Prior knowledge:
Elements: E1 3-8, H1 13-24, E2 31-38, E3 46-53, H2 56-63, E4 72-78, E5 93-94, E6 100-108, H3 111-120, H4 131-143, H5 150-160, E7 163-171, E8 177-183, E9 188-192, E10 195-199, E11 211-214, E12 219-224, E13 227-232, E14 243-244, H6 260-266, H7 268-276, E15 280-281, E16 286-287, H8 296-301, E17 304-309, H9 311-328, E18 332-336, H10 337-340, E19 351-357, H11 363-374, E20 378-383, H12 389-393, E21 396-399, H13 412-431, H14 437-458, H15 461-472, E22 478-483, H16 488-502, E23 505-510, E24 528-532, H17 538-549, E25 555-560, H18 564-569, E26 572-576, H19 584-602
Helix pairs in contact: 3-4, 4-5, 7-13, 7-14, 9-13, 9-16, 13-14, 13-19, 14-19, 15-19, 16-19
Bound molecules: 5-amino-5-deoxy-1-O-phosphono-D-mannitol (M6R).
Amino acid sequence: xxxxxxxxGTRNAVDVIMxxxxxxxxxxxxxxxxxxxxxxxxxxxxxxxxxxLGKLAELDRKLDGANLAGALGIGHxxxxxxxxxxxANSHPHFDTSGRIAVxxxxxxxxxxxxxxxxxxxxxxxxxxxxxxxxxxxxRMYYDGEAAGDLAEAVRGALRLVQGAYAIGVVCADxxxxxxxxxxGSPLVVGIGEDETFIASDVPALLRFTRDVxxxxxxxxxxxxxxxxxxETLDGQTAEPAxxxxxxxxxxxxxxxxxxxxxxEIHQQPDVLRNVLQGRLAPDTGDVVLADLALAPDQLKACxxxxxxxxxxxxxxxxxxxxxxxxxxKIPVEVEVSSEYRYREPLARPNxxxxxxxxxxxxxxxxxxxxxAKQQGxxxxxxxxxVGSSIDRESDGVLYTHAGPEIGVASTKAYTSQLAAFALFxxxxxxxxxxxxxxxxxxxxxxxxxxxxxxxxCLDQAGIIEQCSRxxxxxxxxxxxxxxxxxxYPSALEGALKLKEISYIHAEGYAAGEMKHxxxxxxxxxxxxICIAVKGDxxxxxxSNIQEIRARQGxxxxxxxxxxxxxxxxxxxxxxxxxxxxxxxxxxxxxxxxLFAYYIATNRGCDVDQPRNLAxxxxxx
Length: 620
Ligand code: M6R
C-alpha cells in the first residue's frame, strides 16, 4: 500500500531513495516519484523532482540524465487509493509554491472537506489525491501560526487530519530537516552514522543500516544534522527503543532466482527449520514457546478462540481451527478481519483472539485486535515482521521467523503460519491436559520431518512445471480447487494463488459441497485440482474425483507418493511424500504454489507484482 523512503545525510539522496524504493516496490507499483532539496548556487535552495507513471523502472529511465542531486530527499512508489494512477496523482505532492513536498502512505478520510476549505482560501490543487491536501495544510500553518517552523506546521496540519498516514516532508527553506510522522500506516527510522533514513519497511534500509526505530502511532520524528527527536503530536518527548534487525541484505535480493516468489518457495525447508528451531522437546512430547509472553495459566483459562486474518493468513487460520479443535479440544471460530471489525463481535474476557499476519500491518486485522482488546479479550499475534504494529499491540506473539517475504503472493509466510499453528496446538493441548505425552511425541516427530518432506516436493519442481505446461491451454478461463477437512483451506489457498498471479478465475471448495452447486461448472475446459492425500477423507475425495470424471471434467490430483488408485481416475497426478494428515497442508502447499507460479510465468504474468495488488494492505 505505497512505499515511502526519505534520506538526510552525506550521500546523494537520489541513490539512497531509489535503492530503497526498489526494495519497497512490492507495496505498490502504479507510479512513482522523488524530490530532493537542491542547492540554489547563490539563489534560494529549490525542490527538484521527477515523477513517472508505471513501475520504478520508468522512474529510473527518467532520472537518467535528469541531474537530480542533494543530500535530503523523499520518494514514493504508489498503490492508488484516491485518483487514478497518473503522473499528476503520483507523489511527492507539493504546496502551491512548490517549496514543500510530501510523500504519504495511507488514506486521509476527511480530505474532501479539508480540500474545500483550502480551495475557498485560494489554494490551488493539481491532483485528485487526498495527499495533496496535506501539502497545502502544511503551507497554511507554515505561513500562519507556525511562522516558518516546519515541524510545527506539520503538527498543525496533522491535527486536522482524520485517517491513516505515514508521511515524509521536506521543504526547500530547510535543507537540513526531514520530518516523518505516523498514524496507522507503518514507518521505520533507520539510524546510520551522520545519516538518517525513513522507510515504510525495513528491507529498504538493510543496505545502509540495521539499526531502526519503529515510529509509534501519533509520533513525529524531526531529523536534522544534529540527530533525531521523537515526539508525540502534542509535543511530549518520546524515547523509542532502537532495534537491531538481524536479517541481512541478501534476504532482500533474488539471489539467482528469476522471481522473489520462486526464491521464497524454495526457502521453505529452511523457513520450517527456523520456525521449529528451539521449540520442540521430542523426549517429552512438548512444545516450548519461550518468547510467547502469555502466561500459561491465562491460556489455560481461555474457553474459546477466535482467529482473525485476511487472505492467505485467513487460510492458515482455517487450518489452525481444524488443528486446535481436534487436538487441543477448544472451540475455534475463524473470521476475515474486515468482517469481524464491523459486525459488533462478542469477544469475552476468556476469549483468546489470534491475529495472523505476515506483515503485522494489515489494517483490518490491526483494527480487529483493537476491538477484541477493548472487549477484554487476550490477543496473540502470529506475526512475521518483528516490531510491526500487530506485534506491538498484541499481548503475546508467536513469531513465524520466515524472513522478509517480498513476492506479493504469500508462500513461505503461509507455511510458517501453518507450522506456528501446529506448534501452538501441541503447546495448548499439553497445557490443557488433552494430549498425552505419547501423542505429543508422535506429533513432534511428524513436525520434525516436515522440512525434508518439503524439500522432496521442491525436488519435483521440474515435473510440476511440465504438468503446468499440459494444463496451460485448459486452465485459461477457470479452475476448481477441491479438498476436505485439513485440505479444504489448501483448496482455498490454491485457488487464491492461481487467480492472484495468473489472473485465471479459480474457486476453492470443500469437496463435499460440489453436489450443492459447483458441480454445474464442471466441463472439460474447467480443470479440477483435487487434493486427495492419504488420510481420513481420502476415499471421499476419490468419490468426488470420480464424480468429476463422470462429467468429462479434467482432474489434476495432488496425491500421496505410491498411490496408484488415484492415478486411474485422474488426468495428471502430482505426488507428495506420505505425511501425517493434519500437517499435510504444509506439504501440499508446495505443489500448489509451484503450479500457480509456472502457469503464471508461462502466461507471461509478473508474478512478483501482480496487477492491482500490493503486499501490505495498510488501508482498509
Ligand atoms: O500481511 P498479512 O499476512 O496480514 O496479509 C494478508 C493478506 O493480504 C495476504 O495474505 C494476501 O492474501 C497474500 N498476498 C496472498 O498471497
